[in-house]
Amino acid sequence: MRGNNPDGLELAQEASSSRLVSHQGLVTRGLHMANEGTVFRCFAHAEFSELAIIGLLPLSLVRWYSLTMIVTTLALTMGLWLGHFPAVTSAPDKVLELKTSPTSPPSQESSWQKTQRAKAKAEFPGRKRKVLIEAGHRHLKLGVWCRNKGLNSQATMEFLRAVEVAEHQHPGAKKVLDIMQGYGDAFWQKRRKSFPKGLLSNYEKRLEKVLQKNAKERLGLAKWATEFGLKEGEHEFRALVALKDAPLEFDKKERIKIAGGTVPKELSKVIREEAVKINERLWLRDEFLALLPDVEAIQEVETKRIRVRTTGSTGQAQQVLDACTALLPVLAKDTGAQPTERLQVFLFSKEGEYAAYLTASGMTQFQNAKGFAMSSSRTAYLNTFAISDGDVRALALHEVTHLFVFGFTRTRMPDWYNEGFAETYGGQGCHTLDEATFEFHQVMVPHRLARLRSGEGLIPLKDLLTAKALTRRANPEQGLDFYAQSWAFLRFLRIGAGGDARKKLELWEAICRGKALGAVLDKPTESADVLPAQALFAELFDSDLVELEADFLIFLKAL
Q1: Crossing angle, helix 415-426 and helix 476-491, to 10 degrees?
Q2: Residues 522, 416: contact at Cβ < 8 Å?
Q3: Which of 9, 42, 247, 507 is the most buried (most CB within 10 A)?
Q4: At residue 159, what are phi and psi to the nearest 5 degrees?
Q5: CA distances, 123 to each of 103, 135, 201, 224 (Å)
Q6: Distance (Å, rounded) from C-alpha 519 to C-alpha 510?
Q7: pLDDT tens, residue by residue, 55-102
Q8: Residue 236: CB partners within 8 Å, gap ≥ 6?
Q9: What are φ and ψ of residue 351, in 5° steps?
Q10: Cα separation, 473 vs 127, whole angstroms
């Protein structure tokens, strides 16, 4: 799986039938890389030189091209690595001078200043495009590194980010993503069963450097735009404050501090006035909190990987934090992955708060649920009013499991799998607490399985595999049956159906996550299409479904 060079991509021998097709229709032969150890580089054919794709063409293909093409390609490659992108910016030949104050009223500007502002406004899109492309390229390079280390899910996530961070303007990012998603089934059959100690943390460190560099360049853009009094500068500064994800800090001139600089004084004043108090410190009021204008103060407990906020006391929040902190390393071991951003849980502890938020956010479809998780905000929202601490803990473990998976893949898995996987850790009886020690992967409590064992609540497998959780949850009893059977069927495939079924399940998971099946660029997991994952499961399991159902009933009664 791993290549001889850490800076290159390599294909497994089983995937050697892959084809690379340029936008001009030029087809190259399948890449036999595993046995040759050939290194990928940023060589591009003159006919599609604008792609400047990292990791697409092997050195062995260079001899196919003329010397002129090679020289052209090398020039493009050096330009890519050095940050010189042809036709990326629209900067004029002459540098703009005598920038105007961002606080100066337009009426006080001279005609010359207005002209300079207009020039800057015209130049801004080109400058931003360059910043975006360079940010996308950093994620692309990180994805290449992940791919070489066997971190397939992380590689695909980085390739997705490369496209999205660059706002689809990096010419090679989408091509690399297409290739990763196009690997044949044989490729996914060879994958890591375990990960060397420190590999995931190494990835996180590399990602942090990428994010810091991206933020630094965006700050430069924000400063430049603000010096010319452009509203675009305010937008960039607000984004940087949000990215900091920390309490607001002010310097002696009452400007908000951000990495590498400060926010202009006038904008800092506006953000301060809008802010919300969390643990008695001012925070930016984000989009979520903007929907809760009556909430002026929030309590919070946190670790590096997870944060719990509440409208109530910190006691319950700390219990939730402790349970989720125990869960995260178990999930990392089971999935071989790690979310790239901190997860968040919000506890609505007072009567009516949860319902008010659902109405304000237009998410009333969750009114029959005690909680839900959203990939777009990396937050689980729990209604903890009038329910026991044990039920709050179970609910939090279930929803944080969803968040964890959202954090490393955009694939839309079928609801039976999503809920069965979450119940594996948060279902009643599936986790136990012995003093301060948590145990997971336990068996669900008998009363949750009683209706299934009797056959009264049992759902035929063909219906279970396409069922929608929200639809089932409209009837509370049917909802509980669906969650319990989803848990039981997933457990059956893992440990009760035999080695062949387990291997097919693991292959299905690997392909779905590695190819990001159903994912929609620039959209959260909730917007993805579930049909590709369902179709692949059917392709792998349909021929055995009748036999599996019979064996599952036996397994169910023995639980």
Answers
A1: 80
A2: no
A3: 9
A4: -65, -40
A5: 20, 19, 39, 11
A6: 15
A7: 443 333 333 333 333 333 333 334 433 333 333 333 333 334 434 444
A8: 218, 219, 221, 222, 225
A9: -60, 130
A10: 49
